[in-house]
Structures are given as C-alpha cells and as structure tokens.
Write a structure and sequence with these properties.
Elements lengths: L2 E6 L3 H12 L4 E4 L11 E4 L2 E4 L6 E3 L2 H7 L13 E4 L2 E4 L4 H8 L4 H12 L9 H9 L1 H16 L29 E3 L5 H8 L4 E3 L8 H5 L2 E6 L3 H4 L9 E11 L9 E4 L8 E4 L17 E10 L8 E2 L3 H15 L4 E3 L1 H4 L6 H15 L2
Parallel strand pairs: 1-2, 1-10, 2-9, 6-12, 10-16
Antiparallel strand pairs: 3-4, 5-8, 6-7, 11-14, 11-15, 12-13, 13-14
The protein binds uridine-5'-diphosphate (UDP).
C-alpha cells in the first residue's frame, strides 16, 4: 500500500480531510476527474474577475470552529449577500423583510406587515404539508405567488406542492429592514478566490487531476489503505438500485464591455416566463475592484438555468424528497458494508449541505478517523 488514504474528489470535503490527514503524518493521494481542484467552489480569473464557474458560492456560517478553521487558508472580504428579486420588472428586496413588504403591500410598520401576513396565512390550516403550504404560512400568498412559486418551480422542476417544506425554511423572514440574506455570524468571499483557498488546503499533498476513479478503480483501491469517496453515492454502486435524482445547472456566461450590468451580485428572476432562475454578476462579490483596488472596466454575467440531471451532467443539488430519501437509505446500507470506503460531502451523503456544513462534517469525521 503506497498511501494511507486515497481521497476521491478535490472539493471542500476532500480538501479538509486531506489537509488534516497530512497534518497527522498520514500519506494522502487526492484525485479528481476534472482538470482542476476545488470541486464546484472553483473560481478562475477572467478579465481580472474571480469567476465562479459552477455558480455563486457565498461563504456563511454560525459555526465558530468552522470559521476559525477556514480562515487559516484565506482572508475573507466583507461581502454580504443581498439578492434582488425581479418579478416581471418589479424589483423586491430579499430575503423577505420590511423593504419587501413595503414594496408588495405599501405597509410601513412591522405591525402592519405582520397583520398582512397573518391575514394571508389563514388559508393554511394545521401543519404545512409541502413547500407551498409552508411558504404561504410564512409570508402569505402574495409573496408566494410573486417571489417564490416561479423561482422554486424553475429551480427544482417540480410543483411546489410536491416539494419538501424544509427548502423554504432556508430563507429568513424578518420584520426589520435587513437585506442580509443569511442569518450568519460570519460571511464573506475568500480574497483571491476559492481555488486559491483550496490550493492552500492541499499544499504539500499529491493531487492528480483528470483522473477518473472509476476508470481504474481496482488499481486505485490497491494503492491506499482507506478511501474517502466524495462523488455521488449512487455512481459508486454503478446505479444498481436505480439513480438518485439531482438537479443540474447550466450557465450561459457573457463578458460585457460595460462596467455595471445589474448593480448587484445576484438578481433572481422569480417569474415563470424568464427561462433562467438568476443572473450572477461576478465582479460584485469583490465590489467591482481588482486585487489592487482598481475599478474593473468590464463585467461577466452568468445566466443560470436549472435542469433535471441526467447521466453525464454535473450533479449539483440532491432532490431530498421522500422517494429519493428512501433510495438513499438503501445506498447508505450498501455504503456501510463497503469495507475501507467512507462516503462524504454533498454528493457522497446526498445532502443539501452548504459549504460550512461540508467543512463541519469533514472535521467531525477527521476527529473520529484521525484521533
Ligand atoms: N427561493 C425563492 N425565491 C427566491 C430565492 C429563493 O423562492 O428568490 C427559495 C426557493 O425555494 C429555493 C430556496 O429558496 O429553492 C433556496 O434558494 P437559494 O437561492 O438560497 O438556494 P441556493 O441555490 O443558493 O443553494
């Protein structure tokens, strides 16, 4: 055995584990089928802008241990996510807060806003059974119709009545004038980009790119005592119980010869007719400046289209409904009986983790594994 550990996938889970294992004196090999490290948090420089190739990643956490951990590898800027919703040309503040309620209903005080929500949520009796009921009981039907229904159905490709209510609980509802999307103690974007941050985590560790584990599985398995697998759990088992469902995302990227396209990093298109869910203007993650503090003359935008994942696409979001949950449970049983292989991360655990959740899960695992 050449290595103590083979890490399949150079994303956040793999990078945290590899870093910690090396620190404990273990020998580690990281492989990734892509031509770069950092998984879906990968950024690259285009026109002086750190371009989030696989979609916007905004780091946020309430977990001080995770924050202290990740800030070893990067300095974070003061970016605060405050997306704008565009519903047929009407602009609303997100997350749902007093600015949103004022624009929607003309209400001025928190008391008036609360009364409006109270009146509209009456249509939901008892415990909300799905995302639609959950949304209406949080913010009422008007906001549901204009700011939630279209966006959610585009993002998930499913009717809101068919989706689990927990998805919408990610969004805060506030009776204050606070546009900060995340209720997080710590938030920001790593200065210099995520790729640099992950490169710092992987410093001194052997990484082989453009290596597909499944092309030479037996060979790789023979190289290490233990495997940390961070790819899709169903792919590992060659989909033998059937494929888990994922949502995939496709981006249409454009470099524009204008300094300011939309005035914000994220604008969500919440109507049903616009085919994309949102437009990201990457330069605003870093306040439109290059690393020397100069204004950037051009801009890059990405229109984000959501689609059902099919074989060959990149999986982005697990579809955590009951049906997929039950199938995942079956795969998990298989995974547990797989000697010397550990499954981790958003794809390995089929879980809608945020970045901080992935780091926390990886650190927990390290505590058990490397103790
Ligand atoms: N959401 C919504 N309208 C919006 C933004 C979000 O209804 O303008 C809901 C939607 O159900 C979505 C969930 O909130 O699936 C989470 O969205 P978010 O953009 O936070 O997800 P991300 O893609 O960033 O993980």
């Amino acid at each position: 055995m050449q290595y103590d550990y083979l890490v399949v996938g150079a994303g956040l889970y793999g990078a945290v584990f590899a870093h910690e294992a090396k620190k404990q004196g273990k020998s580690v090999l990281v492989i990734d089928k892509r031509g770069h490290i950092a998984g879906n948090v990968y950024t690259e420089k285009v026109e002086g802008i750190n371009f989030h190739k696989y979609g916007a990643h905004i780091f946020h956490t309430n977990n001080t241990e995770v924050w202290n951990y990740i800030t070893q590898f990067a300095t974070f800027n003061r970016f605060t996510n405050s997306p704008v919703a565009n519903y047929k040309g009407e602009l609303y503040s997100l997350p749902f807060n007093m600015y949103t309620f004022n624009k929607m209903w003309g209400v001025v005080t928190p008391e008036e806003a609360a009364a409006k929500i109270e009146e509209q949520k009456k249509e939901i009796k008892g415990e909300p059974q799905n995302l639609e009921e959950q949304a209406i009981s949080l913010v009422g039907r008007d906001i549901y119709e204009k700011l939630i229904k279209g966006y959610t159905e585009k993002q998930w490709g499913r009717d809101c009545k068919e989706l689990p209510s927990f998805i919408i609980k990610r969004l805060p509802v506030r009776l204050t004038f606070d546009n900060n999307y995340f209720n997080a103690l710590y938030q920001g974007i790593p200065v210099g980009g995520y790729t640099k941050m992950v490169a710092n985590m992987l410093e001194g560790i052997e990484v082989r790119l453009n290596e597909d584990y499944f092309d030479k599985k037996a060979e790789y398995d023979a190289m290490a005592k233990k495997i940390i697998y961070t790819g899709p759990i169903d792919a590992y088992f060659d989909y033998k119980l059937g494929a888990l469902e994922y949502r995939s995302v496709r981006f249409e990227n454009e470099v524009l010869d204008t300094p300011n396209f939309q005035g914000n990093a994220a604008v969500n298109y919440t109507d049903r007719e616009t085919p994309y869910t949102r437009i990201i203007e990457h330069k605003w993650f870093e306040f439109g400046k290059d690393e020397n503090g100069n204004d950037l003359p051009k801009t890059i935008i990405s229109k984000e289209y959501s689609s059902e994942w099919k074989l060959g696409d990149e999986p982005y979001y697990p579809v955590n409904d009951d049906k997929n949950g039950a199938l995942y449970a079956e795969y998990k049983k298989l995974a547990e009986s797989e000697a010397n292989v550990v499954f981790g991360g958003r794809l390995g655990e089929y879980k809608y983790y945020d970045m901080d959740g992935v780091i926390a899960a990886a650190l927990d695992f390290c505590k058990k594994e490397l103790a």
